[in-house]
Fold this protein.
Amino acid sequence: MPDHLHALIAIDREASLSKVIGDFKRAVSRFARVRWQRNFFDHRLRHDESSQEKEIYIRQNPIRAGLATTEDDWTYVLDREAIEMAGR
C-alpha cells in the first residue's frame, strides 16, 4: 500500500515487538529514506486464526483499495518463498 505496510512476522516470545519494529523502521529510514509515523498497530494471531488467512487478507488489500486488479499486479511483495528461491 502506498501509505502503510502490512507484514506477517514471527518473533520469539521473549523478543520485544516494539524493539523489532523500531529497529526495522530505523533501518528502512536510513537505507530507503522512508518517514514513518511514530507508533504502529499490531495484531497477534488468535488461536482460531491462521497465518494463511492473514496472508490472503494482506495480499488482497491492494485489490480492495483499487490499486491492483490481481495479486500479481502488485509488485511490492516480499515473501520467504521468494527469498529462498533467489538464494538457490
